[in-house]
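Posted in: Protein Modeling Q&A

I'm a second-year student putting together a small comparison for a lab meeting, and my supervisor asked me to include a predicted structure for DNA-binding LacI/PurR family transcriptional regulator. I've never done this before, so apologies if this is the wrong subforum. The sequence is pasted below exactly as I got it from our records. If anyone can share the structure token output, I'd also love a short note on what stands out.
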Amino acid sequence: MAVTRPSESGVVNGDVPAHDLTRPSVTMNDVAAAANVSAQTVSRVLNDHPNVRRGTRERVLTAIQQLGYRPNTAARALVTGRSRTLGVITFDAVGYGPATILQAINIAAQDAGYFVSIVPLRSLDPHAVAEAMERLLGQSIDGLITIAPQEQMERALLGLTHQVPAVALDGSLDPSTPVVTVDEEGGARQATEYLLQLGHKTVLHLAGPADSIAATGRIAGWRAALAAAGVPAPEVLVGDWSTASGYQLGQQIAARSDTTAVFAGNDQMALGMMCALAERGIRVPEDISVVGFDDIPEAAYLIPRLSTVRPDFAETGRRCVKVLVDQLRGNNPATMYTIVPTELVVRRSTAQPPRT
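Accepted answer (user: helix_wrangler)
Welcome! Here is the predicted structure, written out as tokens:
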């Protein structure tokens, strides 16, 4: 068997640094000496103790980074009862919104000195949710973030989240659990108001699934805008967030002659609907104006470019971590319900209604 030996530069196959077995491990005492503090102070910084001056904390963290110190997290968890790990339970880890939120949670948690352990659910069965919770508790997580956009998941989590400090994204049936959510209702209302201001007599709505908390909020905002304008709400067309369901509903809309404006519950459904309309020779926005929700990256490159509501998904993830870490530091949440605002992005898919 051929043996690959490290070069003088300490690099072997594929430019991977060779591990120097002769170099002694960096200890907490080494960090303390480099930062000119006691080992106890280093321990306090590692455990995020509040009674450490900012300058001292920064000096210790700089020494840790420069020396490449890696604390024994398993041993520290045994001593302190804390693993420096945040658990996340989520049903959807691949959609644009959830994926962006998860990425932001990961980054914000690392910045706060925590690892993240994510358990994706394959179903919303109460047993599966309880099993996911037990798995995270077995890792001695310090806190929990639940991404629970469905009412069924809310019900399954009820009674489980009190075992550790927790934050719920979108909603929680437990009044003691802080909630962080996108302003679904406000964003939907703004989109609908904009279409009415363009002169459309009413606005049709393509909604997400009936058990979706986000879909419920967006329907509420759409209804509120129509009611404020004295316009009766048309029947809601219900999809499942997918492009395919938008296409199917778009075929129904194409068969009607009374629609000039549509607010789609998300951009994927808007995309499918626009495809169905194009196949029938119905132009956007000359014949029908369309506004979506989510501002997925593809929205700016559709033909025409899609007007949409832009939630700040990354900020939503960061807020989740902040609310949870504040609890872990002994601070009560400033509010039990944090709403992250949205903004309307106007592009080329909206215009005044066609003249009759």
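A couple of things worth pointing out for your meeting: The first strand starts at residue 11 and ends at 12. The radius of gyration is 26 Å.
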